[in-house]
Write a structure and sequence with these properties.
Layout: E1 25-29, E2 32-36, E3 51-54, E4 57-60, E5 62-67, E6 73-80, E7 85-91, E8 103-112, E9 115-124, E10 130-139, H1 145-148, E11 158-159, E12 163-164, E13 168-174, E14 179-188, E15 193-194, E16 198-205, E17 210-223, H2 234-250, E18 254-257, H3 260-276, E19 277-280, E20 283-286, E21 296-297, H4 298-308, H5 313-325, E22 345-346, H6 350-353, E23 361-362, H7 368-383, H8 386-404, E24 450-451, H9 452-471, H10 475-496, E25 497-498, E26 503-504, E27 507-508, E28 514-515, H11 521-528, H12 533-543, H13 576-588, H14 592-606, H15 640-643, H16 645-654, E29 656-659, E30 664-668, E31 678-686, E32 689-697, E33 702-710, E34 714-718
Parallel strand pairs: 30-34
Antiparallel strand pairs: 1-2, 2-3, 3-4, 5-10, 6-7, 7-8, 8-9, 9-17, 10-16, 11-13, 12-13, 13-14, 14-17, 15-16, 18-31, 19-20, 21-22, 22-23, 24-27, 25-26, 27-28, 29-30, 31-32, 32-33
């Protein structure tokens, strides 16, 4: 039976099967990513998602290594060098001429500037001379990522005849968008035989002898005819990627703790975010996740940047720059676009170009616009960078106008959504599964829908925009925004609070009826600060009850609610980023002990996941003794906002705030869980200054010491 997930409407089609066996080995660099199996292959048979992808098109659908016509045996596979290098150790199986284990085959792969570079080393560990044949089988199907996920197309472009020379193969495809896409393969040394689907090397090795083979696969897309580009060598690509990583590390703020297992989680999260971050002309942008969301998503980019803001504000600046540059300027119902609205996602594949899917630039999200304004305000407070804020201020004003006008089309003071595109998303909050917003009797809510968390995002956006307006000298606007926020909070508490379920409704439907469902959405009302203090304590307590907290994390929908399903994408599963925002909200209202419980659950979950990597989500089944959390079969891994969750969780427990406008680092009632004795933060940037901090856990509090300061920065602790 086909595994299906509903992420919105028909456009979010599920992968055709759950992943079998080991998880794919993932590499990504800018617009290119690859999924390999444990042999370092892109297999002809398998789950169907493996491949080399560039701009959401699969440029290599098969790449398999055979030794004497057979698959080698796998000894070990590892992704190393901060996620930039895949290494695989293999040995030959038994054959008529070579005994098993005589040959060691080492493969190393990396991505750089739209190409995959591979180094293959074959060593003879036997006592006799060996003659063997190594073959590489390859194919390029040029399918769109949405086809990989299950969509059927009425027609496709044309795969053109391959061009083969002595050491090169060019596989061309002309799409329905009139783009000519090439997969360009180059081999060194010259193969003994080279055809449109395989390269064959004849190897003669004396005892202890070794041979080195190199293959480069480049992805190219451009209109019209194009000659194959020159290709760098593996060694050059390796040196360049290493230099780029070193440059990124030099001035980066770093964290270490007393617990080696927490440090593994930290290192994995840092590496995943570095891999997912793409350098765009507007600056760095964290692509949402691999494989399904390796592109710019507004909501994901903003929340990832917020989770990372205290450590690396450059990510927020890159996100703000890109989203300001792509902000909707006009009405376009087909794309759910309205003036001032912030992008949901952008794609550059063939199906996006031909509008077979609406996601070339798609604006069907209700929350990215207030979150954009909130990020701009939080970025200013974190950096004091008023010059940059001034450059995007027109975009902030346009976003605020959208919030007040098109976002609140019926004028009731709440921001609602209702799709206009027949091909767009039905649900347009972060829980964008088609069945995610419903009433207490299980009936689906009718649009227009006002989500609880979105009103909180608007509340925070107006308060932070008021600070920006004040800094830019517009005091009247600042006061109006503060007044708007205060009135919104009063309306929200009155309209959304459900005494019978002890929490806020997940939403109001088109008739302004409460969807009285216990959901994690109410936890976001703590994060934004819109919740009434007397409600916050009850929500925080409820989030850690057995209904919500399964031992690993907080479910998206509480157990026992209608439509609850621990295997559902948004109706009972556990999302790390969701938990991180809820924990931040708990700490905001003084419930740091509960926030530490969330950190503890996710830390213990991280030890059960491959490479200590928290996935996009996992199932919400109750925790069972001596077992780990249950995987969600088609979750993206890595996923940006899941990787960034740890940094937000640590910040929440420490109550850490960086205010570069005032040159202050403050820690409000800092706490650490029992499994962390101390945390060190190195090179925390505060304006033009930076500081090193040591936070030491004691029986009832946390001691804070500034171990090094450069420049004028004040560190304060509020107990």
């Amino acid at each position: 039976m086909t595994e299906k997930i509903q992420i919105g409407d028909k456009w979010y089609v599920a992968a055709t099967a759950a992943r079998a066996g080991d998880s794919p080995q993932v590499l990504k660099q800018d617009e290119t990513f690859a999924l390999f199996d444990q042999f370092g292959d892109i297999p002809l048979l398998g789950s169907g998602e493996h491949g080399l992808y560039h701009e959401d098109t699969r440029y290599l659908s098969r790449f398999e290594l055979l030794i004497d016509g057979a698959h080698p045996l796998c000894l070990g596979t590892s992704v190393k060098e901060a996620n930039s290098l895949l290494t695989v150790d293999l040995m030959n199986p038994d054959s008529a001429t070579v005994a098993k284990g005589t040959l060691h085959i080492f493969r190393a792969k990396l991505l750089w500037r739209g190409a995959c570079y591979e180094h293959i080393r074959v060593v003879n560990h036997g006592e006799d001379d060996v003659a063997t044949t190594l073959k590489l089988h390859f194919e390029a199907d040029f399918v769109d990522l949405f086809e990989v996920r299950g969509m059927q197309r009425a027609r496709r472009g044309e795969r053109l005849p391959a061009s083969v020379s002595q050491a090169q193969v060019l596989l061309p495809y002309r799409g329905l968008d009139d783009q000519l896409r090439h997969t360009y393969l180059q081999f060194d040394p010259l193969p003994a035989r080279l055809g449109p689907q395989e390269a064959e090397f004849e190897l003669h090795l004396a005892p202890d002898d070794e041979r080195h083979l190199y293959c480069t696969v480049r992805c190219e897309a451009r209109p019209g005819e194009a000659a194959a580009p020159p290709v760098a060598h593996y060694d050059s690509a390796f040196v360049n990627t290493k230099a780029e990583r070193r440059a990124l590390r030099e001035h980066r703020c770093t964290i270490e703790t007393s617990n080696p297992l927490v440090n593994l989680w930290l290192e994995r999260s840092v590496a995943d975010l570095a891999m997912l971050t793409t350098q765009l002309p507007t600056g760095p942008y964290p692509y949402a996740g691999v494989p399904w969301y390796s592109t710019t998503f507004g909501r994901d980019g903003i929340l990832t940047a917020r989770e990372m803001l205290w450590l690396d504000p450059s990510l927020a600046r890159g996100v703000l720059s890109f989203l300001a540059d792509t902000q909707a300027q006009s009405q376009d119902a087909e794309r759910d676009a309205e003036p001032g609205k912030i992008l949901h996602e952008a794609r550059r594949s063939e199906m996006a170009a031909t509008r077979e899917i609406p996601f070339g630039r798609y604006y069907g999200t209700v929350d990215a616009t207030p979150l954009f304004v909130g990020l701009a305000g939080a970025y200013y407070r974190r950096t004091g960078d008023l010059e940059f804020v001034r450059s995007i201020w027109p975009n902030v004003l346009a976003a605020l106008q959208w919030i007040d006008q098109q976002g609140d089309a019926d004028g009731d003071g709440f921001v609602e959504y209702q799709r206009h595109s027949q091909e767009g998303l039905v649900q347009q909050g972060w829980k964008d599964s088609q069945d995610s917003i419903f009433h207490a009797d299980g009936r689906m809510a009718e649009a227009p829908i006002a989500l609880a968390e979105v009103q909180g995002y608007v509340f925070e956006a107006k308060l932070l925009a008021a600070e920006l307006a004040q800094a830019l000298g517009d005091t009247s606007l600042a006061q109006r925004l503060r007044d708007d926020a205060k009135q919104l909070q009063q309306r929200f508490v009155q309209a959304f609070w459900c005494e019978e379920i002890d929490t806020y409704a997940i939403a109001l439907d088109g008739d302004k009826r409460r969807c009285a469902v216990r959901s994690s959405n109410a936890g976001h009302a703590l994060w934004s600060g819109i919740a009434a203090p007397e409600h916050a304590a009850r929500i925080a307590e409820g989030m850690l009850s057995e209904r919500f907290f399964n031992g690993w994390g907080i479910r998206t929908v509480a157990r026992g609610e209608p439509r609850y399903n621990p295997m559902a994408y948004h109706n009972g599963s556990i999302w790390p980023h969701d938990n991180a925002l809820i924990a931040a909200g708990m700490a905001r209202y003084g419930h740091t002990t509960q926030a530490m419980q969330v950190l503890t659950g996710l830390f213990e979950a991280s030890m059960h996941f491959d490479q200590n990597r928290l996935p996009e989500l996992f199932c919400g089944f109750p925790r069972r003794e001596s077992e780990g959390p249950v995987l969600y079969p088609v979750a993206c891994s890595p996923q940006a906002w899941a990787a960034a969750a740890l940094f937000s969780l640590l910040q929440s427990c420490l109550g850490l705030d960086v205010d570069a406008v005032r040159g202050k680092v403050s820690l409000h009632a800092p706490r650490l869980p029992p499994f962390i004795d101390w945390v060190r933060v190195h090179r925390l940037q505060v304006g033009d200054s930076n500081v090193d901090l040591l936070m030491q856990r004691y029986a009832n509090n946390v001691g804070v010491e500034a171990t090094r300061k450069v420049g004028n920065v004040e560190v304060t602790v509020v107990i």
